[in-house]
Structure formats: C-alpha cells, structure tokens
Amino acid sequence: MWNSIMSHLKPGQRLLTPGRGIPAIRQKPFFVVAVAPTYIGIEIGDSRTFNRLPKEMFDAIDRLFRDNPLGYLRVAAEHANVPTEKSVDEIARSAVHFNRAIGNYVAAILEEAGCVRYVMKGNRKCVERP
C-alpha cells in the first residue's frame, strides 16, 4: 500500500473525507502538505491544523488486509477516547498510539491511492480491497 500511496499523493493535493453514505454527503476537505518516506503530512479543519500520519498506520491496515483479503473495516472516526471497533480509526490509532480520531483521513488517502474502495455494509460505510 505504501508504494501506491507515495505514487498517488502530491503536496498541495486537496482530498475529501469519506463523508456519509454512497454517494457521499457531508464530506470535509483536507490537504496533503508533505509526502515523505516515513509519513504523510496533512492539514485539517478551518485552521488547517498540521497532522503527521506515520507510515506505520498504513502498514497496519495493509497487514490486516493481507491476513484477511476478503475482510473490511468500518469508516468510523469517532471523536472519543476509544475508537470504533473494527474500524480504520482503531487500526491506525493503535499502530502508533495516536489519541485523536484520524481514520477518516487515512481512509480517504487509501481510497485516493486505489488501495481500498468504499462499500456499504448495511447502513455502515466501510473500506475493502478492490
């Protein structure tokens, strides 16, 4: 996944969070500001707050899909101390002990790079391998 991310993202690129449903509603923009060998730098929110997304977050999701190719993860980034179980947010946060909801941005980057696709499982938005 990391090689695909590195080849698809460029500084200055504007991406959208996954939002709700398919087609998505309530998406929010964020900006890629750095594409480095060990992290992706993004700016989020109206104040464009910088966040560093370490490679280990993406590697953890890659391992999960390699171990379970038919599996999926929820796209659910709750602003809570405990992330949603079996979600991009849970896997990404636990990989580097990150304490903020970041899964929506990770999912959007993975989708932009062609590593995952959005699907609905009942009323829940998820990602799975294409």
What does this structure look like?
The strands form 2 sheets. Strands 1-2-3-4 form a 4-stranded antiparallel β-sheet. Strand 2 and strand 3 form a beta hairpin. Helix 2 packs across helix 3 and helix 3 crosses helix 4. With 130 residues, the protein is α+β, with helices and mostly antiparallel strands. It is built from 4 helices and 7 strands, in the order αββββαβααββ. The protein is globular. Helices cover 30% and strands 27% of the residues. The two termini are 12 Å apart.
Describe the biggest sheet?
4 strands, antiparallel
| Strand arrangement, major sheet | 1-2-3-4
Low-confidence stretches: none
C-alpha Rg, in Å? 13 Å
Number of helices: 4
**Nearest-integer average pLDDT:** 94
Q: Could you estimate the helical fraction of the residues in percent?
A: 25-40%
- As a percent range, the share of strand residues is 25-35%
**Could you tell me the number of beta strands?**
7
Describe this structure in a few short sentences.
This protein has 130 residues and is α+β, with helices and mostly antiparallel strands.
Key terms:
four-stranded antiparallel β-sheet; globular; 130 residues; three-stranded antiparallel β-sheet; alpha+beta; 4 helices
Please describe the topology of this protein.
Blueprint: H1 2-8, E1 14-16, E2 29-35, E3 39-44, E4 49-54, H2 55-67, E5 72-74, H3 88-96, H4 103-112, E6 117-121, E7 124-128
